[in-house]
Design a protein that fits this description.
Number of helices: 4
CATH superfamily: Inorganic pyrophosphatase
Structural class: alpha+beta
CATH architecture: Alpha-Beta Complex
CATH topology: Inorganic Pyrophosphatase
Shape: globular
Radius of gyration: 16 Å
Helix content: 10-25%
């Protein structure tokens, strides 16, 4: 008896899962990295397994769950939303999810409420970081706008992304944006994803 392919048993996290129950406001997030994780993991686009991207090169660690929204893609349309971007980073759209209760396991899927985002340029590529809270979270779950979220936690996110590649990086982060713009980025990334699949 031959062994079935991995995809027959488990959907690919990027292509096989939905963007969420009610995107762009309530989305699914596939989590690659947990808070305080000293190693950066990233999904292998071909297989759907997590792979080690690199150990964190500085003492800065992610303050939130970090992953991506399935069936999104940062292509030309996403790049057009960010001043100074030459292109999108050609990856799924990143999302950072805050949870009051510690979640120490990656390679999981959760539902999150979008509240805002950070516009990040990485080497001239649009690399937005959507900010969300865990759905049904007892502390953060009722927050719907970024202005109601602790600013200190947003600054920790900013510091992490400005330093996570070490001293020699080419990262710029603008002012955090509202839920309305974050939702626009998400719908645009969903459109970029559809164009990507149609071109294959």
């Amino acid at each position: 008896m031959t062994s079935p392919r991995f995809a027959q048993w488990r959907p690919h996290p990027w292509h096989g899962l939905s963007a969420g129950p009610a995107p762009p406001r309530r989305v699914s997030a596939f989590i690659e990295i947990t808070p305080l994780d000293p190693v950066k993991y990233e999904i292998d686009k071909e297989t759907g397994y997590l792979q080690v991207d690199r150990p964190q090169v500085t003492s800065s660690l992610p303050p939130a769950l970090y992953g991506f929204i399935p069936r999104t893609y940062c292509g030309d349309q996403v790049a057009a939303l960010m001043p100074g971007a030459r292109t999108g980073d050609r990856d799924p759209l990143d999302i950072c999810v805050f949870s009051e209760r510690p979640i120490h396991r990656a390679d999981i899927v959760l539902e999150a409420h979008v509240i805002g985002g950070l516009p990040m340029l990485d080497g001239g590529e649009a690399d937005d970081k959507i900010i969300a809270v865990l759905a049904n979270d007892p502390v953060w779950g009722d927050i719907t706008e970024l202005v109601a979220f602790p600013g200190r936690l947003i600054e920790r996110l900013r510091h992490y992304f400005l330093s996570y590649k070490g001293i020699e990086n080419d990262v710029e982060i603008g002012a955090a944006y509202s839920r309305t713009h974050a939702e626009h980025v998400i719908t645009t990334a969903m459109s970029d994803y559809e164009h990507l699949r149609a071109s294959e």
